[in-house]
Amino acid sequence: MNKYITLVIFLIPQYIPAMEESRNFKPSEINCLFMCSDPNVYKTPKGGAPILGEIEAHGEDYDTALERHLEQFKSNPSNLETTKKLLCILGALGKVATVRDVYSAIPEAYREDRYILYTLAYALKTEGKMSEAIKVLEKIYYKNPEDPVASANLGFAYLANGNFEQGWPLYLKEKKHSSLLREWLMNGVSLEGKKISIDATNVGIGDVLHFIGFVHELKQRGAFVRFISPRSMKTIISRCTNFIDVVQLKKEEDPIEYDAETPIMTLPALFNVTEKTISRDGPYINPDNELVKKWRKKLAHDHNLKIGFILNASLYNDEFRPLIERRTVPLEKFLELGKIKGISLYSLQQKPELPLDRFELISCNNGIETYVLKGSPEVQFHIFDDAFDKESGPFMDSAAVMKNLDIVIAPPTASAHLAGEVGVETFLILKKVTDWRWPVNKETPTWYPHAKLFKEKRPFDLDSVFERIKAEIEKKLT
Fold first, then answer.
1. CATH topology of domain 289-477
2. Most buried one in 111, 112, 137, 301, CB count within 10 A?
3. Average pLDDT over the chain, rounded to whole?
């Protein structure tokens, strides 16, 4: 492993190893997965987000850094801070067996340290032993039930394990929400004529798309719905006129007085949904019909199985995750699929975000550019030109193209959620460790009936993931 350290381990006491991403907090407070009592140890030399700055400063690769910290631990296993540093690295690299060995070797008094317990729970989760991880998190929680960190992490673990009834109340503890709307929904009060405002501005775009169906549920129950949209989503959200009455930006004035206001991320918990009661009557995102026709015409010459793909999430999200959870997929993995006869690959990633230095442009027709790997002209893929998702507005072309594709393959990103809400068949590539949205040991996600999960069986094992995806594609071609 000859990559330089960019591993991010969050050390902010309020958010120890969270199993979801949340933009309700500052970037340095998101997704803390491991904890050391002295966050100053981990600040970057440039004063950026807390990371394993000590390793970054050495310019080490992961193997060297791990070896150095192992030696430090062996020479002084009774040093708590040395133990925490080592466990941080081991957990983030998915070396769960070694986490267990270290845990067994440390003084018994240290085994009750909550930061070490969090790392142990994370290791158990990585092994797929979620029930055991939950027992560890319960142990932390019951020592201090008022601690929002303990509440949040136990709640996320319950949700990931499919225990929605216990998970949602703890999930809500760390989120501002409308207690009035919660009371109405709990007591079966009619929402007919009630004016409800949904704020979607402090979360990621994928979060907005993921939970848009619950806004539809409010409308189904008779509410008048205002949707406060992120600027980049206003155009596509404005098309949801069948269940959103008003779409506004954060600072736009509205003379209407609303009965209840709540963030979009709280809706599934307020509805107290379970796998049995969740309603998926979508698709909820309606692409522009004219754009759908336009792209159908442009793709009409291609009679292959048309597959769209996305490589990575936004840097903002992924740089705040440990290596084991980073969602980016190398382009080469998708190009391996391109060798299958009878398929065509279309990148839904914007061109500036693709590593094109080793590729050669061979044609450009109707706003679609075709590239080949230099020296391997038999493998082609297509990219949409610079006007894509710009002239018509963000996500507008993406949604329209997706309606003309057979499959979208992606890690869990905003584009993957868009594919789910548009209703196209979606193959979701999941790392061995994922957040609470993607259930443990299931191939079909709770949220999207047209999606299938392809999860790593071991950390950093994308090869087996793509072998399964390849087999699934070949099955469709026969």
1. Rossmann fold (3.40.50)
2. 137
3. 83
Same fold, 179-270 and 289-477: yes
Q: Exposed, middle or buried: residue 192 (CB in 10 Å: 0-12, 13-18, 19+)?
A: exposed
Give yes or no for residue 119 having a pLDDT over 90. no
Torsion angle of the four alpha carbons 37, 43, 49, 52, in this order, in degrees rounded to the nearest 10 = -80
CB atoms within 10 A of CB 68: 17
CATH code for residues 13-173: 1.25.40.10
Domain limits of the chain? Answer: 13-173, 179-270, 289-477
Mean pLDDT of the 466-471 span: 97
Hey, what long-range contacts does 73-79 have (CB within 8 A, 24 or more apart)?
73/102, 77/105, 77/106, 77/107, 78/106, 78/107
141-162: pLDDT as tens digits: 999 999 888 998 999 999 999 9
Query: How far lies 353's CA from each of 64, 158, 182, 324, 347, in Å?
Result: 30, 35, 41, 22, 11
Helices 130-143 and 148-160: angle between axes, nearest 10 degrees: 160
How crowded is residue 309: how many other Cβ atoms within 10 Å of its Cβ? 26
Parallel, antiparallel or unpaired: strands 305-309 and 343-347: parallel
Of the CA atoms within 13 Å of residue 343, those in its CB half-sphere come to 26
Q: Cα(222)–Cα(231) distance, rounded to whole angstroms?
A: 27
C-alpha separations of 144 from 148, 335, 417 in Å: 9, 50, 36
Structure tokens given for 290: 């004219």
Least confident stretch, 63-67, 394-398, 430-434, 436-440: 63-67
In this structure, the number of other CB atoms found within 10 A of the CB of residue 173 comes to 18
Note the pTM of the prediction, 2 decimals.
0.85
The percent of residues in the chain predicted with pLDDT above 70, rounded, is 85
**Which pairing describes strands 359-365 and 426-430: parallel, antiparallel, or unpaired?**
unpaired
E strand map for 277-367: 305-309, 343-347, 359-365
- Per the model's pLDDT, the better-predicted residue between 435 and 237 turns out to be 237
Q: Take residue 53 and report the two structure tokens written for it.
A: 């700055």
| CATH fold label, 179-270 | Rossmann fold (3.40.50)
pLDDT of 24 over the 60 cut: no
